[in-house]
Design brief:
The structure holds 3 protein chains of 3 kinds. By secondary structure, chain A is an all-alpha fold. Chain A has helices at 15-41, 56-71, 73-79, 90-110, 118-121, 130-153, 161-184, 197-223, 230-260, 265-273, 278-300, 302-305, 308-335, 362-385, and strands spanning 7-8, 344-347, 389-390. In chain A, strands 1-3 form a two-stranded antiparallel ribbon. Chain A starts with 6 loop residues before the first strand and ends in a 13-residue tail after the last strand. Chain B is α+β, with helices and mostly antiparallel strands. Chain B is 31% helix and 16% strand. In chain B, strand 4 and strand 5 (136-138) form a beta hairpin. Chain C has helices at residues 2-14, 34-55, 64-70, 89-97, 103-106, 136-141; strands spanning 122-123, 130-131. Chain C has a two-stranded antiparallel sheet. Chains A and B meet through helix 5, helix 6 and strand 2 of A and strand 2, helix 3, helix 4 and strand 6 of B. Strand 2 of chain A pairs antiparallel with strand 2 of chain B.
């Protein structure tokens, strides 16, 4: 049992912190300004159209939401699986999860055609819609993770943090499966309509969440006077590499299964081998080479993998690869034309039979990055205001299962 | 009164009762029939007694003709903004060419008014809904513009409104940030029932093709039901088992 | 001194140009009593929209298109006022009360301009009945209903 005095707010009175907060505020305001443009002038100023209806904002939003559920991993490892070595970092893990989810939700809501109708979205529910369930799951996650952090911070509630931790763990798996099922439940498109989307997203959440958490840990230990326990960094790096392999497994299974069926070969050809469109290049270079193979090489080379800088770079590459992966899934999946008449070439004034054209615009990128800015701002302010970051690592790391 | 008269009275009563029942039994279905064929008054709620649908005979479609499209656009004020990628289109003409044979064909594509609409399943607020009489609509009062229904529709029937609109037609309200699609001219159907003529069908008839037939699929006496019964019709993407309200003939 | 200035201000407010004085609609009476409408018009609108959209009930009494038609306001230049102009029946009060409404993002804020176009006519396919989207005000206005010419003009 740790006493509250093992944690403390970050002392951040210097100009560096003020500059950080200012920059993040500017990023956030730029995102809000972009959202205002989209709402007042309409979505015609974006690259999204009637063929590709979800774009860059959704890539960012889904990434942030998926990473949010994975960022809770460390807290779950300590509460649910009894890995006491992670105990000091559980608060930061839960806080990061909340911050990421807030950023993702903000982007998602601000991209709506009628964001002023958010209250409608929270009062009218079609319970057959996975989207409606996700609204419960996302808001519930924020509440549960918030209660989780609170119970961890308040000594008299600390024994309760374990059952809440269980709930948070189960909730986040449901949430991530729900996010994957947004695509998995769509019968219309060849790139979706697959049961594997839900578990693939769960694997992605492990990878992206751990990568973001590692970046946060390394940043915190670098810029503050609070070095993070080296054993934790070692384990998180190793786990990260395993999670990347898990994601690759699901990606391989998804595409190989589609390749096997004559009916679904088209989509694999389009996403992976069609040189006329950007998705194949993004997949092989962005997702596989830079996002998976290179980080794995870095994390598995013993000389390199011990360096914090190398780990930081590997984690950043995984984040980049994750964004590219979501771009290929979300935008590539929509760009592929709907097949209404197999064996026919189709054309129309409504772009039937044609690959959907999409190019992200400035407003969309600003909105997406604004969401990231919100996340980082929430973390930066919280560690300053609340006792989240541990003061120093424990003397000897233990790993027996102790509640 | 003697026993003979009593017996005669009794027999007469039975006979009259029998006649009455027979007459009643023969008229009653007709009375029911009249019930179905009568248009619902506009102040009465719709019910699943009716299921509105279209039968499109594509053998009467030609590649260059887009009368149905222009009719729909005029009826609902769908003036393009010069941005084809984002302009709304409720009905469009598809030109298809069979790869193996080179055979060409043309047909209109619109919301299929499915009985199991994927767009209704996925809408988070329930704005995309199927009415009791089978017409699939968007309640634009509660549409939040998330476009999930557009992702879900196998027919690309839905359009999102990407800009501020002005001068909407009174019977066709539409606005920025919401999703829309073919309404089967519900403003006409609600007033005229089975006698209604959606704008696409009307325009096609005026162009002399008569390829689009509107009617009540549940009414076995209606022309659409009879033609489907005798000639058959197919759904597009029948493999999805959506039980569409729009049926096609003549597609090779 | 303070009291008298307050009283004076109170009197002035009654004639203040800021307080809206909406123009009377067409016809003798509204479909509901004025004080009922003042307080509850939003209830009628909200209820009717669900009836119309979900249940296909087109009540000419509470028809929104009917409201817009009766409460049209003609400006001095002969044009009908639009929602973003102060003379519009709805925006006059709503701007004053600072209650934002979004009806006219989708709904037409004034009756359709062209009488003979398809916009204003919902004709019965037998061509024998022509029914506009509201009947009372229209009939009060036109001595004869629009002709049964089909609307494929210009």
């Amino acid at each position: 049992m740790k006493h509250a005095s093992a944690f403390a707010q970050i002392e951040a009175r210097g100009p560096g912190y003020a500059a950080l907060v200012s920059i993040l505020t500017v990023v956030l305001l730029a995102g809000l300004w972009a959202a205002h443009n989209m709402e007042s002038q309409g979505h015609h100023i974006t690259g999204m159209n009637n063929q590709v209806v979800w774009g860059i904002p959704h890539v960012f939003a889904v990434f942030l939401i998926v990473a949010a559920s994975g960022a809770l991993n460390v807290a779950s490892l300590s509460s649910v699986f009894g890995r006491t070595i992670y105990r000091p970092l559980a608060r930061l893990s839960a806080l990061l999860a909340i911050a990421l989810l807030l950023g993702g939700l903000a982007v998602l809501v601000l991209d709506l055609g009628r964001p002023d109708r958010l209250i409608v979205a929270m009062t009218y529910y079609n319970l057959k819609s996975i989207f409606a369930w996700n609204i419960f799951l996302y808001t519930g996650f924020i509440v549960i993770a918030g209660v989780y952090v609170w119970f961890m911070m308040e000594q008299r509630f600390q024994p309760l943090s374990k059952p809440v931790g269980f709930l948070a763990f189960a909730w986040r798996l449901t949430l991530t499966s729900g996010t994957g099922s947004i695509f998995g439940f769509l019968v219309a498109r060849q790139a979706y309509d697959a049961a594997v989307m839900a578990p693939m997203f769960v694997a992605m959440s492990f990878a992206f969440g751990t990568a973001v958490f590692l970046i946060t840990l390394l940043t915190v230990s670098c810029v503050t006077t609070r070095p993070v326990d080296k054993a934790v960094l070692d384990r998180q790096s190793r786990l990260l590499s395993i999670f990347v392999v898990a994601v690759l497994y699901f990606v391989v299974m998804f595409h190989v299964t589609n390749l096997y069926a004559a009916e679904h070969r088209d989509i694999v050809r389009f996403l992976l081998f069609d040189g006329d469109h950007p998705y194949a290049k993004l997949f092989w270079i962005g997702q596989i080479a830079l996002g998976s193979a290179l980080p794995l090489a870095l994390l598995w080379t013993p000389r390199l993998s011990r360096s914090s800088i190398v780990r930081f770079v590997a984690a950043c590459l995984i984040v980049l690869g994750g964004l590219v992966q979501l771009y290929v899934i979300i935008i590539g999946g929509q760009a592929h034309p709907l097949v209404l008449f197999p064996g026919y070439e189709v054309s129309s004034p409504f772009f039937d039979g044609e690959v959907g054209q999409y190019a992200g615009t400035v407003n969309e990128y600003l909105l997406g990055i604004g969401g990231v800015g919100l996340t980082v701002l929430v973390v930066a302010l919280s560690v300053r205001v609340l006792p989240i970051v541990p003061k120093k690592p424990p003397a000897a790391p233990t790993d027996h299962a102790v509640t | 009164m003697n026993a003979g008269t009593q017996f005669a009275d009794h027999a007469r009563r039975r006979f009259l009762k029998g006649i009455g029942l027979t007459l009643g039994a023969s008229i009653a279905p007709g009375a029911l029939f009249v019930e179905l064929a009568r248009a619902k008054p506009p102040t009465e709620a719709v019910s699943n007694t009716n299921r509105w649908g279209l039968l499109i005979d594509t053998s009467k479609c030609t590649d260059g003709c887009d009368a149905c499209v222009r009719g729909c656009n005029d009826e609902h004020g769908l003036d393009g903004k010069g941005r084809p990628a984002t302009d709304a289109q409720w009905i469009r003409k598809l030109s298809i060419r069979q790869r193996s044979t080179g055979h060409r064909h043309s047909l209109p594509m619109l919301c299929q008014h499915c009985d199991e609409p994927p767009c209704v399943d996925v809408c988070p607020t329930g704005a995309s809904f199927k009415r009791a009489d089978g017409i699939v609509l968007v309640d634009k009062h509660i549409c939040i513009g998330c476009r999930y229904c557009m992702m879900a529709c196998p027919y690309k029937a839905r359009s999102f409104i990407h800009e501020t609109l002005r001068d909407q037609l009174p019977h066709a309200p539409r606005g920025k940030g919401t999703v829309e699609s073919c309404t089967l001219c519900v403003h006409r159907v609600d007033r005229f029932g089975g006698d209604a003529l959606p704008a696409c069908a009307e325009a096609c008839a005026e162009a002399g093709h008569n390829a689009i037939l509107f009617g009540d699929l549940n009414d076995t006496g209606s022309e659409i039901a009879e033609r489907l019964h005798t000639q058959g019709g197919r759904q597009i993407r029948a493999d999805l088992r959506l039980n569409t309200g729009v049926r096609y003939q003549g597609i090779p | 001194m303070l009291l008298s200035s307050l009283l004076w201000a109170g009197c002035a407010a009654a004639e203040s140009p800021l307080v809206p004085t909406p123009k009377k609609g067409r016809g003798d009476v509204c479909v509901e009593a004025t004080d009922v409408m003042r307080r509850n018009h939003m209830e009628f609108i909200l209820h009717q929209r669900d009836d119309t959209v979900h249940r296909g009930i087109r009540s000419s009494k509470h028809s929104f298109v009917g409201c817009i038609d009766c409460h049209r306001v003609q400006k001095t230049d002969g044009q009908l006022a639009r929602f973003d102009e102060p003379q519009h029946f709805c925006s006059g009060c709503h701007a004053y009360a600072a209650v934002k409404i979004d009806c006219f993002e989708c709904h037409a804020d004034r009756p359709a301009q062209d009488k003979s176009s398809a916009a204003r006519r919902l004709h019965h396919p037998s061509n024998s009945i022509v029914q506009t989207t509201w009947s009372l005000a229209e009939q009060a206005d036109d001595r004869s209903l629009p002709s049964t010419v089909r609307a494929d003009a210009p």
